[in-house]
Amino acid sequence: MEFLDLPMRTSGTRTYGITSIADFGVPLQELEYILSDYGHIIDIAKLGIGSAYVTPNVEKKIALYKKYDIEPYCGGTLFEKGYYQNKLTEYTDYLRKLEIEWIEISNGTIDIPLNERLNLVLQLKDDFHVIAEVGSKDANKHMSTSDWVDEVKILLEAGCQYVITEGRDSGTSGIYDKSGLIKSELVEELRKEIDCNKIIFEAPLPKHQMYFINEIGPNVNLGNVRLSDVLILEAQRCGLRCETFFLEEAECKLPL
Fold first, then answer.
1. What is the pLDDT along the chain (256 residues), one digit of tens a residue?
2. d(Cα 47, Cα 235) in Å, to the nearest integer?
3. Which of 66, 210, 216, 239: disulfide with 247, CB 3.0–4.6 Å?
4. Domain ranges (residues) in the chain
């Protein structure tokens, strides 16, 4: 029985308000139990780092996600490994064989020039839903705010479905500093300049998720969410945690 007035949440096949989880090797049977309860609040599942390549029964895992209408894809590290070894054709064939319809183009570990990533987006967008990632996993690499904004804009204009802001599974790089603090000025500039419904903010920890929910709204797109935190995140989105208790209904809108 529902009796509380809560922030409006997107539902069904969401285009925003997305929860994207990071699967770093949860066993198949355990995953089935989790999805039977929480599958309706998960939209995208990243098989983290390059783990898909060594995951037992990976075909069954992908089929299980699809059973719950969750889009699976392989982490950007696997893409970068294929790029580094000049085996992107083999990689895309691998994705097709697994019936994975999404592909991440990133440069978190190796430096792939923006023009090269744009060419890859143009080549792949007719066959896959392309997600690009901006930012490095190396916390010592600096990108100016203007470079962040320009790169996200250019990748979206090239045809990416979404752009992910790097944060790692530890929340210590990309849009975070080494100590895990959010670069709030960067986030604010991204909000001002870009439709944040097209950005997936990596937010691996509840404290990061709370920040984005309070700043942007209950339907902010969040990624690198741990499976164990999925229900906690949904409660936060609904204003059912003290840190988001006074959350008002809000949606990400196009920049003015």
1. 789 999 999 999 999 999 999 999 999 999 999 999 999 999 999 999 999 999 999 999 999 999 999 999 999 999 999 999 999 999 999 999 999 999 999 998 999 999 999 999 999 999 999 999 999 888 788 889 999 999 999 999 999 999 999 988 888 889 999 888 999 999 999 999 999 999 999 999 999 999 999 999 999 999 999 999 999 999 999 999 999 999 875 555 544 4
2. 24
3. 239
4. 19-244
48, 204 contact by CB (below 8 A): no
Q: 241: Cβ–Cβ under 8 A, 6 or more apart, which residues?
A: 210, 232, 235
Q: Of how many residues is the chain composed? A: 256
CATH dotted code for 19-244: 3.20.20.70
Alpha helices in 130-241 (DSSP H): 145-158, 184-193, 206-216, 230-237
Answer yes or no: are the C-beta atoms of 182 and 176 closer than 8 Å: yes
- Cβ density class 135-153: b for 16+ within 10 Å, e for less: bbbeeeeeeeeeebbebbb
